[in-house]
Amino acid sequence: MKISFIGHSCFLVEEGSYSLLFDPFITGNPTATVKVEDLKPTHIFVTHNHGDHKGDALEIAKATGAKVFTTNEIGDEFKNNGIETIAGHIGGKAMTEFGSVKFFQAFHGSGIEGGHACGFIVDIGGKKIYHAGDTGLTKDMELLRREYIHVALLPIGDFYTMGPEDALEAVKMIKPKHVVPMHYSTFPAISQDPEVFKKIVENSTETKVMVLKPGQSIEL
Ligand code: NI
Ligand code: MN
Predict the structure, then answer these.
(1) Domains of the chain listed by start with CATH number
(2) 85: CA distance to ligand 2 center in Å?
(3) How far is the CA of 111 from the centre of ligand 1 (A)?
């Protein structure tokens, strides 16, 4: 699978005929390297309703017909706009054309009354990706060990989410094969050096850290 980092918490995962777009914050994102109209995903994932995650999701879904995965209350706006929306909830799993999507708890505001923020465990092509969304460190992450995560996309920016030291503890609990850090250095409040995170993780775990600049891709 090809994983492209678009910037902040936005990734495009391509596998076969599927292209999965996570947290498409393009407009107003000083690090974004693509134009909204250039994104043609088959599926869109929205972890929560904060502007730096929901971003341009509605506009892209309208333009492309991509299906949207998000939690129930956040899904209403998409449904009301005629978007095919898979609005599950924490702990649930949806079977999909490409595999499955499980909604995992994220310890963070949802940005909508009565709603929940989430992370996603996406099984595609027999490999699991965990996009953590925005979250603080929780012991619940131990539950992810039995998912055998191939690549975990984890926030390291601190202030709004885990910082590098807590993200290291998350890696120790999850034990993914690879980690790509996200949600850092987009704004001054979340300024971090991802190479420091890479060093502390690779010095104390078996996990490989792939640091991507916005616009960079890897095959995993
Ligand atoms: Ni947030
Ligand atoms: Mn955020």
Answers:
(1) 2-219 (3.60.15.10)
(2) 22
(3) 7
